[in-house]
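Deliverable D5.2: sample structural annotation.
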Amino acid sequence: MTDNGSSQQQGGEAARAGDHDRSPVPLDQGHVEGTGGIPARFADPGLPPHVHREADQSEKAARKAEKQVATMFTISIVATVLFVVAYFAVPGERLAYVPYIGQASISNLTLGLTLAVSLLFIGLGAVHWAKTLMPDEEVVELRHPQRSADADRQAAVDGVYAGGEAAQLGRRPLIKYTLGGALGLFAVPLVLQMVGGLGPLPGNALSTTMWRKGLRLMRDPEMLPVKASDVTIGSVYHIMPEGLDKHGDILEEKAKSAVLLMRLDPSDLKVAKARDWGYQGIVAYSKICTHVGCPVGLYEQQTHHLLCPCHQSTFDVTEDCKVIFGPAKRPLPQLPITVDNEGYLVARSAFHEAVGPSFWERG
């Protein structure tokens, strides 16, 4: 029994050792044809026969492919040189009109185009090189067990502990604690730099607009005041606050303060707050969708629904712009309005809640 057990044990050890030495049969003992002398790896017998490329069989075709790749890299070099020249030679303050983009700096356009061409032809050249000249044999190589022997693993652990003992970390606690503090505090400047790089804190800029009591509602883009008598049932006006053209940051304030003005039959308004904050059926709501901030500009007169064209959030004006469809989670904020002594529509106050999309402080 002892001899049999010993034989079985030795056989098992031999089999395990053989797992580490086992190798698949090579495709041949020479070199793979058309790969520039690269030794043959291990071929999968299930793969279809390899189809040689023209450059593998013809030196003339290979030289042609070489010239094509070199041409692409040369174009990239020229574009990079033009980028450097444009960086210093093209002024940045001159503007040009670009279709679908608008006003753009000639310098930015030149730098962007030259850099794009440079990167594009590096990529095209590399791809063409790989497709025409680099080896394209499909080979597989069997994976051997990657786990080290237990003795080797224990030796690695012992080496780590021995290094710690040799460095006297256990005997020198002052060094250990000060090193930990130095490495820990070293991350603080990095964190501060990353946080500071995000720019100044927004303060209440995300929650306030320039609307305030007494500001007239101005029709956009004419920027003319609107009389209540001019607003008919079913009509809708795009409104901006009076004095917007004198604001320091017109574009930012215009994006936040845009309002839609509509007139309904007062009996159609089902929420008392909407009637009270309006004027004789005229109501004003923020134009900024509470989902991701797209402009809500589609008004359906028969159903009194406002539709956001980006993600189809739908708001019911008769129910204080409650969300009835789509991903938006909050109603559109209402702007309280009234009329002044001349009959022009004015704001009774600012918005009572933040306009625009929700964020972590709004829910």
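Annotation notes: The CA atoms of residues 147 and 153 lie 9 Å apart. The chain has eight helices and 13 strands.
The annotation will be released with the project's public dataset once the embargo ends.
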